[in-house]
Design a protein that fits this description.
269 residues; mainly beta; ten-stranded mixed beta sheet; two-stranded parallel ribbon; 12 strands
């Protein structure tokens, strides 16, 4: 398995209750030096509770006027609030990889960007992709043949071939050479011609070839985005060659890019 370098409007749609009380003026029979002032017109009373009509709001504003309520932050398409909350505030590029089910080894990958207004839009893709043979997991372990679910940084790249124009640090090294066959009998040669390290159980800022595992060897590592060899992976994400080269050229370290990956229903939480 490869390795590398690298609101909410909690709408207290609170109902404004106006309690209007009328004060009566009781006149005695005693004569008064000055005539009593006429009573002010009584305001109309509030609707009785339970009569089905909304209570009136403040003067000059409709009862359902929510103009001052906070506006929810826009979310990346397909992501639910819990997953979106894991995306750092400073991130303006997100590479989203979604599988149809928890056990599927094919996926769809799309690069999104956030514009100055905060809106997320497609920047590249969607592209077909492969993930691990057995699908996805929230508790990845070495050799389980599942891809870890989550939001991870992607800041380091490399490969056997020269840098295709990446803005990420790129480590060209012969150690990226690979041979053998995949799970479907397909040749693996060329799979690591270009790779992007996913910051799962690795030290960011280092080559994807770095072997340090902060969570321990048993939690796996070397999870990359690499060239698709035509079949499922051990834990990595695989993209067709030209799509990966396009992704490498698009990612910008200043955008604090992340990969968001997992089954579609899990990411929608």
């Amino acid at each position: 398995m490869p390795v590398r370098k690298g609101a909410r409007a909690l709408l207290s749609a609170g109902t404004l209750c106006a309690t209007l009380s009328l004060t009566g003026c009781l006149l005695t029979g005693c004569a008064s030096p000055t005539p009593p002032a006429p009573a002010a017109p009584a305001p109309s009373s509030s609707p009785a509770a339970g009569d089905g009509r909304p209570a009136p709001g403040p003067p000059g504003r409709a009862a359902n006027d929510l103009a001052s309520a906070p506006v929810p932050a826009p979310r990346i398409p397909g992501l639910g609030p819990a997953t979106q909350a894991l995306v750092p505030d400073g991130t303006t590029q997100a590479f989203v990889v979604t599988g149809a089910t928890a056990d599927s080894h094919t996926a769809t990958a799309t690069l999104y960007r956030r514009d100055p207004s905060g809106r997320w839009t497609e920047a590249a893709g969607p592209w077909p992709a492969h993930n691990a043979l057995e699908g996805w997991t929230e508790d990845h372990n070495a050799g389980d043949l599942r891809t870890p679910i989550g939001v991870f940084g992607i800041g380091d790249a490399g490969g056997l071939l020269p840098d295709p124009g990446s803005r990420l640090p790129y480590d060209e090294d012969e150690e990226f050479a690979i041979s053998g066959t995949g799970f479907s009998g397909e040749p693996l040669e060329g799979s690591f011609d270009h790779v992007i390290a996913i910051d799962y159980n690795r030290v960011p800022g280092r080559t994807p070839l770095d072997k340090e595992r902060p969570l321990g060897e048993e939690k796996g590592g070397g999870v990359w985005i690499h060239v698709d060899h035509g079949g499922p992976t051990q834990a990595c994400i695989a993209l067709e060659r030209e799509a990966l080269r396009q992704l490498l050229r698009a990612l910008d370290p200043a955008a604090e890019p992340v990969v968001v990956m997992g089954p579609v229903r899990r990411l929608a939480r």
